[in-house]
Amino acid sequence: MESDKATFTKSSETQVVMERVFSAAKDAVFRAYSDPNLIPLWWGPANLTTTVEKMDFRPGGMWRYVQRDGDGREFVFHGIYQEILPSGCMASSFEFEGTPGHTQMVSAIFEDMQGQTKLTSRTTFQSAEDRDAALDSGMEASAGDSMDRLAALVEK
């Protein structure tokens, strides 16, 4: 797998899997996911500004991120951490507040690959319709942009 591109796969009717290899140590990539000061530097498309309103990084802890565009419109996301393993795994719920009730489960696995890190993120939707709506809304481009920004952060 190339280290400069994320791949997306519809792994089932209700799942999307994204994978990317980063030229950075696993600890650096995991820290970018777990440090509220680093989240705004990479999370979401580059044309939006992300603010971490809440991030209680522990199982059962809540997170809430607000993104704003140049016109001041807000896009708010939140969830609850289900699992966090410092060895390289985390899972949380994920909900866009613009479509309440359409909660997703997202897991991220960080694998050491001799100085590089393979990130595998699996998003499980409540239905095939929810998965397709997310993909139609630009999920792949947005996540790809986030991964490019994450790579720039952790690979320097």
CATH topology description: Alpha-D-Glucose-1,6-Bisphosphate, Chain A, domain 4
**Average residue pLDDT:** 94
In the sheet with the most strands, the strands line up as: 1-2-8-7-6-5-4-3
Radius of gyration: 15 Å
What is the total domain count? 1
**Largest sheet, strands/sense/barrel:** 8 strands, antiparallel
**CATH architecture name:** 2-Layer Sandwich
Q: What is the terminal-to-terminal distance? A: 20 Å
Question: How would you describe the overall organization of this protein?
Answer:
- The protein has 156 residues and is α+β, with helices and mostly antiparallel strands.
- Helix content is 24%, strand content 43%.
- The chain contains 4 helices and 8 strands; from the N terminus they run ββααββββββαα.
- It has an 8-stranded antiparallel sheet.
- Strand 4 (62-68) and strand 5 (74-85) form a beta hairpin.
- The model has no long low-confidence stretch (mean pLDDT 94).
